[in-house]
Amino acid sequence: WYKINYNGTVGWVASGEWLTESVGTGLNTYYYRYSTGNLLHRYAYHTGTGYSDTFSNLGPTPTYLTENVHYYSFDGGIYLYNSLTAMLDDYRADSYGRSINANNPNYPYYLFLPAKSVSKASAADLDKQITNTSSKLYGQGKYFKEAESLYGINALTTFATAKNESNNGLSSIARDKNNVFGYGASDSCPYECARSYASVRDSIMDYAKNSLNSYAVAGAKYYFGSHPGNKGSGRNVKYASDPVWGEKAASGSYMTDLKENNSRDYKANTIGVTKYGLHGVPVYKEPNTNTVIY
Predict the structure, then answer these.
(1) Cα separation of 2 and 92, whole Å?
(2) Are 246 and 111 in contact (CB under 8 A)?
(3) Helix 155-165 crosses helix 141-151 at what angle (to 10 degrees)?
(4) 128-138 burial by CB neighbour count: b if 16+ within 10 A, else e?
(5) Are the beta carbons of 95 and 276 closer than 8 angstroms?
(6) Strand-strand pairing, 9-13 and 2-6
(7) pTM of the model
(8) Fewer CB under 10 Å: which end of the chain, C or N?
(9) What's the pLDDT tens digit per position in 140-171?
(10) Which residues contact 68 (CB under 8 A, 6 or more apart)?
(11) What is the rounded distance in angstroms from the CA atom of residue 106 to the CA atom of residue 216?
């Protein structure tokens, strides 16, 4: 048996003919501080015929990181290590004591921003992001703001998610079915099973409604936190098979905010994250212990 950590989720896999243990000196996933001062996560992915690599931009990096030095993490970049040995030792010990930021965990803003928040971006700000008139997202900013008003789901992060899911509104599902979120599609049925909508507005409203009812409210069927997250917490636990879907959504939100919104949304909210090892933290309606909500 092999103990693994798959982007925050711990499990065991059995050895067998289908599993090969590979030993080498290279690692195709790491975090680093770029010259812009942002934290980038570079990772490899399968193209269908081979491998390539890309990165997610998680926003301004903590000041304790050195530019262009590779850092490693087994929890999505919250705790960072400057050596694989230190990271593996901590992983085996279920600890973060050897990380370089053991007392100062890093929580990228858009990776942990709850879906139920309000964006300062206007419909016009969102529309500036899409200049290709062939895109199904062209001129749709008003509907993202309408969905935000109706369902309380952040317009900027919803828009960034649509860009990622629909290849900027140019995917075949978007073009043929007005489906800009890939709803209904799966790894085994990526096109035929995707839902069809009468309009892009209908696709946006369906996404916002389902986000609220299934992912964004405590106790909902797929609720693991309404933030994008990874396979350890957040929407990424159940929303997508892609383990870095949450990072892609967060990166898209950060870049959308930076490009046309002058970063007005960045850190506009104060985000609280429970400390490592604490579970079942009660939430109260009023500042007293007699008004528990859950």
Answers:
(1) 12
(2) yes
(3) 130
(4) ebbeeeebbbb
(5) no
(6) antiparallel
(7) 0.85
(8) N
(9) 999 999 999 999 999 999 999 999 999 999 99
(10) 32, 33, 34, 35
(11) 23
